[in-house]
Specification:
- This protein has two helices and 18 strands.
- The chain is an alpha+beta fold and 238 residues long.
- The strands form seven sheets. A five-stranded antiparallel β-sheet has the order 9-5-6-15-14, with no helix packed on it.
- It is elongated, with a radius of gyration of 25 Å.
Length: 238
């Protein structure tokens, strides 16, 4: 295969990866707390055996948009949305994780948990307990919980010290490979949930662009294949 073929194949691989990512964004356009993901293409020089160096593309850098999603009123006692730069912390079998998805509910033991059953942590990174006998539960902007007018705890609001240490896991959860601190600027809103920040119209438009780019590359590879076959056939005849 000639240099043009190798370069085109590297681009086709990246386009396929980006298409899967865009499709995943569209599929999660209605997922609470979801953050849209993008792919960054980069150029690198590859030395091929017996040939000169060629410029190829690589698409291995993921870019997550941290833009806030729209807040929707639900009226749910245990539905919470965050305004500003902050995250809920949840306890998973793999360790502590951050998330913006704040649709919670108490489990049988009274612990506040996510839809997957993971416990929500308070400001001191201990499980949040909600008494089952309480008639009214209110949560303030700073996460302070009151049951029938009595303060019983505070839902934690956190953020990574360095944003680039966040790594997406399982759709709406993030692993932080670094230090985590309290968020001093974020506030909590009870009875609301934050929607996905995916712009479905832009994602569909991007999907069409990727498909066209992929088809152009495929057409080029097919033309090159026919050209090489023709050249070999003519060489054999001579």
């Amino acid at each position: 295969m000639e240099n043009a073929g190798y370069a085109t194949l590297s681009r086709q691989t990246g386009l396929m990866r980006e298409m899967r990512m865009v499709a995943n964004n569209i599929a999660n356009s209605a997922t609470s707390g979801y953050r849209s993901e993008g792919l960054i293409f980069s150029e690198y020089v590859q030395t091929m055996p017996g040939q000169e160096s060629i410029s190829m593309s690589r698409a291995n850098i993921f870019n997550t948009s941290m833009e806030q999603g729209q807040l929707t009123k639900t009226g749910g006692t245990f539905d919470f949305a965050i305004e500003g730069d902050g995250y809920f912390m949840i306890e998973t079998p793999q360790g502590e994780r951050l998330t913006r998805a704040g649709v919670f509910s108490p489990n049988a033991a009274g612990d506040l948990v996510t839809m997957d059953g993971y416990r929500v942590l308070d400001a001191g990174r201990a499980p949040v307990f909600v008494p089952g006998t309480a008639e009214t539960i209110n949560v303030g902007a700073d996460g302070t919980i009151t049951a029938d007018g009595n303060t019983i705890g505070q839902i934690g609001l956190f953020k990574p010290v360095e944003a680039h240490t966040m790594n997406r896991e399982d759709g709406v959860m993030f692993r932080v490979d670094g230090d985590i601190e309290d968020s001093e600027t974020a506030t909590m809103v009870q009875g609301y949930k934050e929607g996905s920040n995916v712009n479905a119209i832009l994602e569909v438009s991007r999907m069409i662009e990727i498909q066209r780019a992929y088809e152009m590359g495929q057409s080029f590879l097919e033309t090159e294949d026919q050209r090489i076959r023709s050249a070999i056939s003519n060489l054999i005849k001579t």
